[in-house]
Amino acid sequence: MDRKKFLTNGFLGLGAIAALPTAITSCSGDDKVDTATPANGGGNNSSDCVISPTETVGPFPIRTPAQYVRASIFGDRTGIPLLMTLTIQDQSSDCSPLAGVLVDIWQCDKDGNYSQYGGNQLQTANYNNQNFLRGRQTTDANGQVSFISIFPGWYPGRAPHIHVEVLTTSGTSLLVTQIAFPISVYSAVYATNGYNGAPDRSNAQDSIFSDSLSRNMADSVTGNIVDGYTLFKTITVG
């Protein structure tokens, strides 16, 4: 499957996304996650009903997210395709799916740069007038949203990650968190042309993930560098 076909299929099948067939099963010591896709698409069971880690929004939070209600967030950015399905569940209701809440997502491009920012010491590349790799969706009856993106790059001091915020329809923030990737997956991606090689921080060395890596880790990441990857993650709010 080429990149264009992968992305097209993603557009057409957001209501019933199927994982790519190749499972990434070999994880290094600090991955702490089984990357085989769970039967429930990444959801937690009642014995694992723990609120997801609260993390910083970072220096590049999404601005005016209501303007970016979209499933496809990659814009003009190139990279290995990444299809993400997030399930939001409510701890106060025995971790039942949480329908009708807003999910904002933002990430850097393959070069480690964010849109809406730049031209300063934090990020020399100036993308103040661009809005790639940012989006908002509303959870369906199953508490799920999906985004079509690219695999993120990295920037100094951080392991690769995705930012997520869950909000009520009135704009009250329920949780800000981040998603980590298995080392076996990002090592394969960063060895390809176009990415910047191995990051300067592993998952275990990342200060944001240092106390919560196993709960920040994606529930599953399947696929390969040719066809692209599919990520599932369940996020629990209180």
Tell me what the structure shows.
- InterPro entries: Intradiol_dOase_C (IPR000627), Intradiol_dOase_core (IPR015889).
- Keywords: Dioxygenase, Oxidoreductase.
- GO terms for molecular function: ferric iron binding; oxidoreductase activity, acting on single donors with incorporation of molecular oxygen, incorporation of two atoms of oxygen.
- It comes from Chryseolinea serpens.
- Residues 73-181 form the Intradiol ring-cleavage dioxygenases domain.
- Strand 1 and strand 2 form a beta hairpin.
- It contains three helices and nine strands, in the order αβββββββααββ.
- It has a single domain, classed as Sandwich (Protocatechuate 3,4-Dioxygenase, subunit A), CATH 2.60.130.10.
- The relative contact order is 0.26.
- The model is unreliable at 1-47 (pLDDT under 50).
- The strands form two sheets. Strands 1, 2, 5, 8 and 9 form a five-stranded mixed β-sheet that branches.
- The protein is mainly beta.
- The chain has helices at residues 3-12, 183-190, 213-216; strands at 81-90, 96-97, 102-106, 134-138, 144-150, 161-167, 173-180, 220-224, 228-237.
Q: CATH superfamily assignment?
A: Aromatic compound dioxygenase
Q: How many individual helices?
A: 3
Order of helices and strands: HEEEEEEEHHEE
CATH architecture label: Sandwich
The CATH class name reads Mainly Beta
Distance N to C terminus: 40 Å
Q: Average pLDDT across residues?
A: 85
**Gyration radius, to the nearest Å?**
16 Å
Strand content: 15-25%
User: pLDDT under 50 segments (min length 5)?
Assistant: 1-47
| Domain module tally | 1
Number of beta strands: 9
What is the CATH topology assignment? Answer: Protocatechuate 3,4-Dioxygenase, subunit A
Instruction: Indicate the overall shape.
Output: globular
Give the % helix. Answer: under 10%
Largest sheet: 5 strands, mixed
Keywords: Dioxygenase, Oxidoreductase
Domain Intradiol ring-cleavage dioxygenases: 73-181
GO molecular function, one term: oxidoreductase activity, acting on single donors with incorporation of molecular oxygen, incorporation of two atoms of oxygen
Pfam families: Dioxygenase_C
